[in-house]
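Tutorial, part two.
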Amino acid sequence: QCQLPIKRTLSINFRLSPIMFISHLLFLFLSYCRLSATANNNNTCDTMSVVEATKYKQDGEEAREIAKYMPWFPFKGVPRFYDIGGFLYEPEIFQKIVNIFADRYREIGIDSIAGLDARGFILGPPIALALKKPFIMMRKKGKMPNSISSDSYKTEYGNRDGLTVQEDKIKKGDRVLIIDDLVATGGTLSSAISLVKMLEGKVVECACVVELKLFIDPAPETGLPSRTKLFKDLGHDDVPVWGLISEDILDQEAKLPDGYVDDGEEH
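Running the prediction step on this input gives:
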């Protein structure tokens, strides 16, 4: 439907002066480009595959630099609790993370960013501002008016009540990016995905700074929960998950002060 009657037009313009002929050709070319651009823009959200956004790879050069600022602590009964406070304390590193995520989702194309309570509230807003997209809070129950709630879920720390989101923040067909600091078992992310689907939005991707790969699809004999199985059981296996850094390169053990006590509490 974008084809132009080039053959007939050319036959007419050969009788014009060279300058007018060239001008007419240029007009035809620019018209074709505008039509092509319009068609491409209308289809970008449908044809741009998340897989194509490969400028930044998991555990790539940028990830390895950032990983130096994420020490692990024994905390809340978890032998390796990865602390994002390390890179938040370094403005240049924090900015680098924001730039990486903004670049990735500028290319993929999104309508809004949903951040998970609570560390998603730290990471999501600067990325949303960089992309000039709305930021949506997904909070614990009882924190926001006019909200809907997902079912309760399990995490590596125990059982959790469902998340909530305000009903008017996601519209039918909206392309939503869900963001959090870390994905392990996928329980919190699955709760957030359910909220988006309840409002007939589409989750483009779940994005985290850290992805613990040992939970993706562990062997049954390990006894570890499987994120792949969880997503499949809930009908979320169509939603991709992307993490900038995996545990493979998170090797910075925190220097613990004398008398360090694991005083982490469930929250």
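Residues 24 and 226 are 62 Å apart (CA to CA). In part three we will examine how such features are distributed along the chain.
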